[in-house]
Design goal:
Number of helices: 17
Order of helices and strands: HHHHHHHHHHHHHHHHH
CATH architecture: Up-down Bundle
Number of strands: 0
CATH class: Mainly Alpha
Low-confidence stretches: 1-20, 413-417
CATH superfamily: MFS general substrate transporter like domains
Structural class: mainly alpha
Distance between the termini: 29 Å
Helix content: over 70%
Shape: globular
Number of domains: 1
């Protein structure tokens, strides 16, 4: 079993100046940006039928565009992560928000499927660039004793974005069609840019940043064992989230014969559960430990699978979906703090961001696997088999893994070689 718990040198508490006004802007910037990123991603989930009909392609082709977005995310994580570790968190974060907002506008103007597919790949670069930089800004800025809460708030932006995409599918799509769905995030993007401009660079970055990109790459390479473990962990976490979210509205329509409006309303409801889960489990990880909080959330997911996949009436489906996403996103609510605490000081944007997005790449076939299993097992059993295996594997990986809750980000760094 790998060593757990903070090392003696990690128990130093960071100075209180970190909590004096700055962390509110930093956490808000991370949360709003991740919400916007998720909204822009999940818009496509609610447009599978509309886009397939408009571009005269199969629905599986639109599903493949989702996989392409996921697959391109590591490139953005590497690019913007290196920029953030070398030059600071704020400006790269603002640049990535402007970038993916522009791509989203162009997606709504796509004249054909080829252009649309290319734009979804380019969007993946921006989506991949945001998380590592936003998470490092938020978690480094937060007081040590509030990292779990900051982590939950930041990751809670993701289901809020999904929720808003469901609202847009109910209000914008019927009235104005699919193109304005891609333009709805422009005002939130402007707000995110303003809030990010008000945040200060974390003291942890000032304390540990290295003078060259080559030095950053060397530090990351020296920690390849930790990277490999975290990559396995994040791949399984991507199977958990995308496997329970991306196709679920289509599953409700296809397997349970619900209308598109009913599926959108259910998505709104279960994303409320997801938001509550991220915050509550993130906060509880300060008392239960990072791994303890995550495993508790995963056990909730196991219990909810029958109602989530096979609920015999609407109440069971809604309740199962609500609590399933409370568990799924509750586990995710601990991840920003957990990854930042396990990452090397000098590369705290690059390391967790690249792990996160390579996990996204390796996890990108989740939708295609489930869609293929549907033809063999039926939709409900396809989701059950895939997620049952994923949750069991995650419990083992977390139980055997390390934890460094409460480590200081301001201890002296080792000299780069």
């Amino acid at each position: 079993m790998l060593k757990t718990g903070p090392r003696a040198s990690d128990r130093e508490i960071a100075p209180s100046t970190l909590s004096a006004g700055n962390h509110g802007f930093a956490v808000a910037a991370g949360t709003l940006g991740w919400m916007l990123d998720a909204f822009d991603f999940f818009v496509v989930v609610f447009l599978l039928d509309a886009l397939a009909a408009h571009f005269a392609v199969s629905k599986s082709s639109i599903v493949a565009s989702i996989a392409l977005t996921l697959a391109m995310r590591p490139l953005g994580a590497a690019l913007f992560g290196l920029l953030a570790d070398r030059y600071g968190r704020r400006k790269p974060l603002m640049a990535v928000v402007a970038y993916f907002s522009l791509i989203e506008v162009l997606s709504g103007l796509a004249p054909n499927f080829t252009v649309f597919l290319a734009l979804r790949g380019l969007f993946g670069i921006g989506m991949g660039g945001y998380w590592g930089v936003g998470a490092s800004l938020a978690i480094e800025s937060a007081p040590v004793e509030r990292r779990g809460l900051a982590s939950g708030l930041l990751q809670g932006g993701y289901p809020i974005g999904y929720l808003l995409a469901a609202v847009a599918a109910r209000l914008i799509l019927p009235a104005w069609g699919w193109r304005p769905m891609f333009w709805a995030g422009l005002i939130p993007a402007a707000i995110t840019l303003y809030i990010t401009s008000k945040a200060r660079e974390p003291e942890a970055w000032r304390h540990h940043h290295l003078p060259s990109v080559a030095g950053l790459i060397r530090v990351a390479a020296q920690h390849w064992r930790s990277f490999s473990y975290l990559l396995l962990l994040l791949t399984l976490m991507m199977f958990l989230s995308h496997g329970t979210q991306d196709l679920y509205p289509d599953f409700l329509k296809s397997a349970h014969h619900l209308s598109a409006n009913a599926a959108a309303y259910i998505a709104m409801i279960y994303n409320v559960g997801a938001v509550l889960g991220t915050i509550l489990i993130g906060y509880s990880s300060e008392h239960l430990g990072r791994r303890g909080g995550i495993i508790m959330a995963l056990l909730l997911c196991i219990v909810m699978i029958p109602a989530w996949a096979f609920g015999r009436n609407l109440a069971l489906l809604v309740g199962g979906a609500f609590l399933m996403q409370a568990g799924v996103q509750g586990a995710w609510g601990v991840i920003p703090a957990h990854l930042n605490e396990l990452s090397p000081d000098a590369v705290r944007s690059l390391f967790p961001g690249l792990v996160y997005q390579l996990g996204s790449l390796l996890g990108s076939p989740a939708n295609n696997i489930e869609y293929a299993l549907r033809d063999r097992l039926g939709y409900g059993w396809a989701l059950t088999a895939f997620e049952g295996f994923t949750i069991a594997a995650l419990i083992v990986v977390f139980a055997l893994g390390p934890e460094r809750k409460g480590r200081s980000f301001l201890k002296e760094p080792a000299q780069a070689q």
